[in-house]
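Pilot study result, target chain (463 residues):
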Amino acid sequence: MRTGRHAVVLGAGIAGLLIARVLSESFARVTILERDRADGARVRRGVPQGRHLHGLLDSGRAVFEELFPGCTGELLRRGATAAEVLVNTRWYVGGARLAATPTGLTSVIASRPLLEDVLRERTRMIANIAVREGITVHGLVGGADRVTGVTLDGAAETFAADLVVDATGRGSRIEYWLSDIGAPVPESERLEVDLGYATRLFGHRAGQLGGDASVIISTGANGRGGGAVRIEGDRWLVTLAGMLGDHPPTDPAEFREYAATLSAPDIHDIITDSEPVDDPVPYRFRSSVRRRFDRLTAMPAGLLVVGDALCAFNPLYAQGMTVAALQAMALRECLYAGGMPDELAVRFHTACAEPVSAAWRLTATSDLSNPGVTGTRDLRTRLTNRYVAQTHRAAQRDPVVARSFMRVAHLVEPPAVLAHPLIAARILLRGNSTASSRPPRGSAAAESTTPAQSGASVWPHHT
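Predicted structure:
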């Protein structure tokens, strides 16, 4: 049921578009303010990671389809690929390939610009949503008790709103904005990973990768990993990654040599057997950051923080877009439940804490399995990482474990599934060997005697 109120969403990225779609059901008007001007399915300046490999987990894809019915079909019509996870895609975790088995999960493989463009076009079709581009927001209007709008154009213009949603991403200035109006600033949790990407496009040829749509090689003992996915335009998008400052080079020859150091040869084979479309481009991600709005004892009414502005995950785990989708559904439930409008901010951030915490624990625990990452490793963390390593080894041998592991990684099932007695028994039975099961013939991992150290990372199988 719509009210006569006006909601303003700051940012037209994935999180902003999903949130605007949900707000359109309850607010008379929704305005999206975006600094960039969209230019079709091209990388926006405000999305520095837009050239690189992204991942839309299956739980996120389901939300996209619910909010924008038919968007999966539209993506496929525009050249995206759909694949069954572990059947039509290859996953190397813990130094060897996971068992191929149906999982009930669907990968929609496309570039970030194409996915964003499809959602943006669908959003523009909603009558009570307006998108204003080329707008720079400079701060909040209001005080510690309530936010009543935002300032634009060097604070010379005020834009009034009953609800303001910060979806400006990792570069959000929300702490400064709150401080400027005398509102409390949340504490932050931070985990330094110093991740670096390098990405290059290649032409795709029939028969490459045995007809599979993607290959993901999780970061191993040397902190290096990568992914190659077949995207629109019949191209391979190849991203290499390295942790803790060991970043892949952008020199084409060195890029190829870096790929040869991964724990499986599939990506290197694609690089050496394909024609490049462009030169490698870099991207750097220094730290995961979570802003704990759920712990604030007082927060201005009329303000929500979503997406990477709320929690910026290590992108190795492909969780960002999916968690943003789950936040959109949490907001929908809060709005449908009613209650006092002034309580929406507290109720929403409390509701978001569950999916954000689940994803944060998965990524932080995995990152801390790398001894070079600084952080507290309590007994629970050490035991969890030991069990995860066993799970990886079991998943290489046991299709049942592989299916459960991937469903947890896609945020479809809770991590507790892996502790179910029937699954735990299989993990303990098949996962106690110190060496990984032998991967497919010809794999470089078959010759490696070094088990992966940080293989818990779930690399995207791409958006």
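One observation from the pilot: Residues 231 and 444 are 25 Å apart (CA to CA). A full batch analysis is planned for the follow-on phase.
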